[in-house]
Amino acid sequence: MDDRDLLRYSRHLLLDEIGIEGQQKLLNAAVLVVGCGGLGAAALPFLAAAGVGRLIIADDDTIDDTNLQRQTAFCEADIGQSKAEVLQGRLNALNSRTQISALNERLSEAHLLELAQSVDLVLDCCDNFATRQAVNRACVAARTPLVSGAAVRFEGQIAVYRPDLPDTPCYACLFDGESANDGACAVFGVFSPLVGIIGTTQAAEALKLLMGIGANASGELLLYDALANEWQRLAFDKNPACRVCGHR
């Protein structure tokens, strides 16, 4: 870190739990974020502002009018443009020292695995069950930590998965691919601030994990009810018969 970094990240350096060592870990870190919609647009500015050294952001979608109700990283002038590329520009303006790669594509299983193997952590900020399962498979195969979030209606959820550690559950242990189903906000709606609450909490869990500080919600599902403004914490175990991680 040079003098500019010491000044920029001074509020982190003042925290005993972080200090220079923790900040340097962020500067050296690489993170893949799958999804640049409500959750990704909320999480990514904090990852960049905090000093994560390299961010890979992936989303094949373009911005439309319905996104502006909750995806506050975008504005009316962005309508019709690539979410990943617009967000890349916003993040570059926020922190020019963070290396940001924008992938305006739907990632194949092979590409997901390649990317998961190249980073320290993955954030699942996507909006559909099939992609969440694919991201989980890639993280389990690569043994890369995963912070997964979802938000619909007035309800959100977050879980941290640690395939880099032995005997820990994965996403498929909790949500079986044959029976689980998710609801799209296009059908059921989503409360505007909810994606901010869940997305920024994902960023917090990711930053703590990268620095090795605090407690992470591994083996726990955090549920948030925006109407009641309440969090609920549910523990769950590894499924020995899990079709994704059961053989490990």
From TrEMBL:
One annotated Gene Ontology cellular component of this protein: cytosol
Keywords assigned by UniProt, alphabetized: Nucleotidyltransferase, Transferase
A single MF term (Gene Ontology): ubiquitin-like modifier activating enzyme activity
Entry annotated with the keyword Nucleotidyltransferase: yes
CDD domains the record matches: ThiF_MoeB_HesA_family
InterPro entries, per database record: ThiF/MoeB/HesA, ThiF_NAD_FAD-bd, Ubiquitin-activating_enz
Record has Transferase as a keyword: yes
Stored Gene3D superfamilies: NAD(P)-binding Rossmann-like Domain
Superkingdom to which the source organism belongs: Bacteria
Domain THIF-type NAD/FAD binding fold: 9-244
Annotated TM spans: none
Pfam families named in the record: ThiF (PF00899)
Homology family: Belongs to the HesA/MoeB/ThiF family.
NCBIfam families xref list: PRK05690.1
The protein's name in its UniProt record: HesA/MoeB/ThiF family protein
Source species of the chain: Uruburuella suis
Lineage: Bacteria, Pseudomonadati, Pseudomonadota, Betaproteobacteria, Neisseriales
